[in-house]
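Appendix C: a fully annotated inverse folding record. The material below is reproduced so that readers can follow the format used throughout the book. The structure is listed first as tokens, followed by the designed sequence.
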């Protein structure tokens, strides 16, 4: 049971790595194919789309593990109360951004679902699905982080 839970907890990391590996293999295959003058037109497109998925899922992983770029001047310069209010405002702004990306990304996914890509002939919406999916996961981790930074900190100070 714990093995399955660990898989689900790290699913975005696993898929980001899988997409990255597919991208690397696709690029290498395209380079070797050009070297031997073999036309593999689909390798560039596959590399591009797996790169998009890898980057957006990698963003979720970085956010989840707090490895993204942070400007901590606010936290060090202001008193703890003001710093907490600024952190809450930042998380609320992030939630607004991620909700917007989910809504517009989902609309774009639906609009382009029946449009095939040039060489792979997969739905273009499958590529655009990475935006609302990663944004939805970012919403979950932002809410978790908002809970940890506000409710737990306030309850510990009481």
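Designed amino acids, in order:
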């Amino acid at each position: 049971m714990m093995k399955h839970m660990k898989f689900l907890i790290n699913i975005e990391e696993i898929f980001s790595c899988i997409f990255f590996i597919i991208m690397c293999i696709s690029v290498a295959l395209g380079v070797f194919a050009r070297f031997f003058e073999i036309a593999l037109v689909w390798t560039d497109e596959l590399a591009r789309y797996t790169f998009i998925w890898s980057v957006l899922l990698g963003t979720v992983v970085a956010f989840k593990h707090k490895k993204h770029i942070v400007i901590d001047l606010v936290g060090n310069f202001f008193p703890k109360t003001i710093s907490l209010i600024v952190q809450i405002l930042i998380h609320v702004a992030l939630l607004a951004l991620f909700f917007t990306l989910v809504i517009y990304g989902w609309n774009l996914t639906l609009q382009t679902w029946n449009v095939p890509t040039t060489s792979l002939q997969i739905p273009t919406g499958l590529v655009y699905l990475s935006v609302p999916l990663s944004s939805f996961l970012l919403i979950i981790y932002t809410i978790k982080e908002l809970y940890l930074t506000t409710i737990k900190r306030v309850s510990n100070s009481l």
